TrEMBL record, chain A:
Na(+) is not transported, but it plays an essential structural role and its presence is essential for fluoride channel function. One of its GO terms (molecular function) is fluoride channel activity. Fluoride-specific ion channel. Important for reducing fluoride concentration in the cell, thus reducing its toxicity. This is Fluoride-specific ion channel FluC. It is a multi-pass membrane protein. It comes from Lactobacillus ultunensis DSM 16047. The gene is fluC. Keywords: Cell membrane, Ion channel, Ion transport, Membrane, Metal-binding, Sodium, Transmembrane, Transmembrane helix, Transport. It holds the Pfam family CRCB. It catalyses: fluoride(in) = fluoride(out). InterPro entries: FluC. It comes from the Bacteria. The chain crosses the membrane at residues 20-37, 43-65, 72-92, 104-125.
From TrEMBL, chain B:
Its main location: membrane. One of its GO terms (biological process) is cellular detoxification of fluoride. Na(+) is not transported, but it plays an essential structural role and its presence is essential for fluoride channel function. It is found in: Cell membrane. It comes from Lactobacillus ultunensis DSM 16047. InterPro entries: FluC (IPR003691). It catalyses: fluoride(in) = fluoride(out). The keyword Mitochondrion does not apply. This is Fluoride-specific ion channel FluC. Na(+) binds at residues 78, 81. Fluoride-specific ion channel. Important for reducing fluoride concentration in the cell, thus reducing its toxicity.
Length: 141, 128
């Protein structure tokens, strides 16, 4: 990838390095978004972040599969970087542990099972809708 | 308002996501044969999520100050592990009618993650 600056300097970066930089930059915002959800809503924030993230990642994955006119750094940045860092598996497990330790096994069970079920359903919906939208946009061209 | 904890979480998440991206790229090249032996399991994500759960349990158990936890726990480990990639992969397994892989991947992720967070936690308490 070529970057040209305003005074004419040109910098060449390999696709690989560009992708890594993109992942890091997008992940910064994904992580901050998750942390602020977590700070405001506790484990409900983690739950909703994860569920929305499942929809978004499946949507992006299948949308970009149909509609290929995007730079790789953008698709990798949005998917692996932003949404990947926005969702979290480790905190999901830790929230379950905290609820069990706080003597709320029922809350832990509901949280654990509903994350599993809704995560899958929302990823499935994201796949379906992403594919449809991708095909629609491609037809308009 | 952006406070220091959010900034630390964001910076940590960048590091975690780079690690995840690097391991996924490496695993797709070198660990495919392991996945083939177990109904096409996505080994890289499974490895990332399970190790992330173990380490987060440890970090939580050993107890650290708020800023260190924001950087390492919420940031690095939160950005390193991923819930969305796992579910997208589960949907892919379902779509390819690999139901054995779907059940196997689901159980090993969710059950394995729960067991490992407890193991990590008690190890952390032990080292406190």
């Amino acid at each position: 990838m070529k970057w040209t600056f305003f005074h004419g300097e040109e910098i060449y970066l390999s696709t690989k390095i560009t992708n890594y930089i993109s992942v890091a930059c997008f992940a910064f915002f994904g992580g901050m978004a998750r942390a602020s959800l977590n700070a405001s809503f506790g484990f409900y924030g983690t739950f909703w972040g994860n569920i929305i993230g499942c929809f978004l990642l499946a949507f992006f994955t299948y949308f970009f599969m149909e509609f290929k006119d995007f730079h790789q750094w953008l698709t990798v940045g949005l998917g692996t970087g932003f949404v990947g860092a926005f969702t979290t598996f480790s905190t999901f497990n830790l929230d379950t542990l905290k609820n069990i330790q706080a003597n709320m096994p029922f809350t832990a069970l509901i949280y654990f099972l509903s994350s599993i079920v809704f995560g899958f359903i929302f990823a499935f919906l994201g796949m379906k809708i992403g594919k449809k939208v991708g095909l629609l946009v491609r037809k308009d061209d | 308002m952006i406070n220091l904890n959010l900034l630390l979480a964001g910076l940590g998440a960048s590091v975690g996501a780079i690690l995840r991206y690097a391991i996924t790229n490496y695993g797709k090249k070198h660990w495919e044969w392991i996945g083939k032996k177990f109904s096409n399991l996505p080994i890289p994500t499974l490895f990332i999520n399970l190790t992330g759960a173990l380490i987060l349990g440890f970090v939580f158990g050993i107890g650290s100050n708020v800023f260190l936890y924001a950087l390492v726990g919420t940031g690095v480990l939160g950005g390193y592990t991923t819930f969305s990639t796992m579910n997208t992969e589960l949907v892919e397994l379902y779509k390819s009618k690999n139901y054995r892989g779907l059940i196997f991947y689901g159980i090993s992720s969710y059950f394995g993650g729960l067991v490992l967070i407890f193991i990590g936690y008690y190890l952390g308490v032990l080292f406190k």
